[in-house]
TrEMBL record:
Alphabetical list of Gene3D superfamilies matching this protein: Ribonuclease Z/Hydroxyacylglutathione hydrolase-like (3.60.15.10)
Protein name: Metallo-beta-lactamase domain-containing protein
Entry keyword Hydrolase: yes
Keyword field: Hydrolase
Annotated Metallo-beta-lactamase domain residues: 19-215
Species of provenance: Porphyromonas pasteri
Superkingdom field: Bacteria
Amino acid sequence: MNIQQVRNATIIVEYGGKKILIDPMLGKKGCMPPFPFSRNQHLRNPLHELPFPVEEVLKGVDAVLLTHLHDDHIDEAAYEAIPKDMRLLVQDENDRQVVMSHGFNHVEVVGDNTRIGEVSIQKAESQHGNFIMKYPAGHTAGYVFTHPQEKTLYHAGDTIWYAGVKRNLKRFRPEVITLNAGGNGFRLGGRVIMNDEDVVKVAAAAPDAKLFVTHLEGVNHNSVTREMVRKRAEVAGILDRVFIPEDGETVEDL
């Protein structure tokens, strides 16, 4: 499999002969206001331009997978740019109705064995914040990919490190894990996704897995940089299996 970092939490997964775009945030730099009650209120989102044109992001995509519908995971630019006949996969019926309201014709809820060709996708446990933020942050989902000729891939999505992630690692035994680890958080309620310390915890719980770290340096409420993850991984002795790509960079043959 190949995984390309686009920007923020937007990645492209080439897996089992299919090309899957995850959480497309496609607007121009600064087109959205900062997330409130968080750090860097002087910065508008997204913080950087896309590394290549929107048309290139969408080229050859077989399906779009949405972990949830927050603006930094699908924005108005994405709703406008994605072809209306594209297949979109969502976590639940509420998200399906919202996405369909934007005019899309093929929106489906991921089940126990949703398939894109020979690629199987199923949901995994996720929690978008601690007990204070769990409900304000809303529902989100992780996803697990399997294919006869590919390693098992676990896309954790926007989740904190908690018992559900540990259960996912034990249940699915993924060989490749994509982690949203920008430490996004708010002044009240704390972080709503993992941070650099959690990358080390996941690596310890899945000692044979490779980790692809994303959702870094993309929006104003990020608190973790690529360099922070790199230093943390180096100290922990896991830098050889932790990938921290720049925007536009592809990690091949995972």
